[in-house]
Amino acid sequence: MSTIVSTLPKFDHVGSFLRPQRIKDARKQHAEGSITTDELTKIENEEITNLVAKQKEVGLKTITDGEFRRGWWHFDYLAGLEGIEVVETERGVPFHDVETSAFNIRINGKIKFNNHYMLEHFRFLKEVVGNEGHIAKMIIPSPNMIFFREGIGSDFEKQFYSSLEEIYVDLIQAYKDAVTAFYNEGCRYLQLDDTAWALFFDESSRNLVRAFGSDPDELIHQFKHAVNEVTSVKPDDMVMTMHICRGNYKSSYASSGSYDGASEIIFGQLNLDGLFLEFDDSRSGGFEPLRHIKRSDLHVVLGLITTKTPSLEDADAIKARINEAAQYVSLDQLHLSPQCGFASTEEGNLLTEEEQWAKVRHVIDIANSAWK
């Protein structure tokens, strides 16, 4: 087990924070051409420096850049790989009561990792975080997010790849190269974010897989293979975790269903150091699927505090749920966090920055009480 994993506190966070208005204004000005890229970067650097200080102030130990430089939690990273681009689409992604802005990714060549621009983002974060009792955490989307792409199987895509399996060969290598590159920059905590596992949580989602021309019972093994291949190059002193999400856009969600449909693979067959799991409401089902965890070194971060609303959960009720989960996994393996980030896209969830930090403090206070 990595030393970092064994010393992680009992509270954590998924990663993204509400973008300050100054960042939103600067990104708009940059898009309009009224400020330069250097001017935008300077503003981002200043706001990230402020964010790092705030995370330390409230008591967080694992520190992110809040994804302040990103418009999307996943597209920005994926488009930094060779062979993938962001394109405008006719429709956005339908969520429960809202639709995202209309963008997606498309394959436009052979996929490779080549001096990705987010390496510089991590360099800056690591420098600002420093080495005094805090860990700089880098967050990238899982390779399985390639499944949701524009032009699946189109003549354009077939210029480069004839099948999903062929895409995965290059994609896995690109991610292996990414793990090595971030490690060489000093990253010792790399988190994968993944909404694709929700495709197996209920029958309607499985039917969506079939509509895309795939067999869900085969695809789930492709997903497992991708994650395990990527983590296979992880050095022993690097932590890799995965956040499994059901969608987070303007306080809405994209899917529902318990982990049962994929629990044996997620909890029993993925070679990760930890899992961030959504359990903030009934959409995620109960804790019974955790019975498939057989490893005593797998850390399970329970997302029991929602980022979708500002109200603070009853602390005793949260502690009771932690104890309920401990019926299936040792309490020593459990941690507490919000169920997702506060701003998976630059729009952010429907709460204020003050309410956001109240949520973070609430997580820390409950964890300190539950594991005292």
TrEMBL record:
Keyword terms, alphabetized: Methyltransferase, Transferase
Record EC number: 2.1.1.14
Listed GO MF terms: 5-methyltetrahydropteroyltriglutamate-homocysteine S-methyltransferase activity
Keyword Repressor: no
Superkingdom classification of source: Bacteria
Enzyme class: transferase
Gene Ontology BP annotations: methylation
Record bears the keyword Transcription regulation: no
Sequence ranges assigned to domain Cobalamin-independent methionine synthase MetE C-terminal/archaeal in this UniProt record: 14-71, 163-367
PANTHER family: METHIONINE SYNTHASE
Stored NCBIfam families: PRK06520.1 (NF005085)
Protein name: 5-methyltetrahydropteroyltriglutamate--homocysteine S-methyltransferase
Biological source species: Metabacillus endolithicus
